[in-house]
Design a protein that fits this description.
Layout: H1 3-15, H2 29-42, H3 45-48, E1 53-54, E2 57-58, H4 78-92
Antiparallel strand pairs: 1-2
Length: 97
């Protein structure tokens, strides 16, 4: 990714955020790893298993537009998951049980 493409992407992210939202900033390596470490070592497996986690917590389901925070309802839809699974099998030319 060139610097110009990166800058356009960040401008697009910032433009799509609700008024008053903090501007985009990169996470440090420890910040980026924190949720995976939290989910693996700290959180109760029953609370996080099969769920989308972010920033050291289970993400809330959100329907508002924007690119930051939460998980969208369509990402939790079993029919979408099945369609994605079928398309993946089709693309790799294999069936998985």
């Amino acid at each position: 990714m060139t610097g110009e493409v990166r800058d356009r992407l960040i401008s697009s992210i910032n433009a799509s955020q609700p008024k008053g939202a903090a501007p985009f900033s990169w996470k440090s390596i420890p910040q980026g790893a924190a949720t995976s470490v939290w989910a693996a070592c700290v959180a109760d497996a029953e609370a996080v298993g099969g769920r989308y986690c972010e920033d050291c917590h289970v993400a809330e389901v959100v329907s508002t537009p924007g690119l930051r925070g939460g998980v969208r309802p369509y990402a939790l839809d079993p029919q979408h998951a099945q369609a994605l699974w079928q398309k993946s099998e089709e693309l790799v030319g294999e069936r998985f049980n």
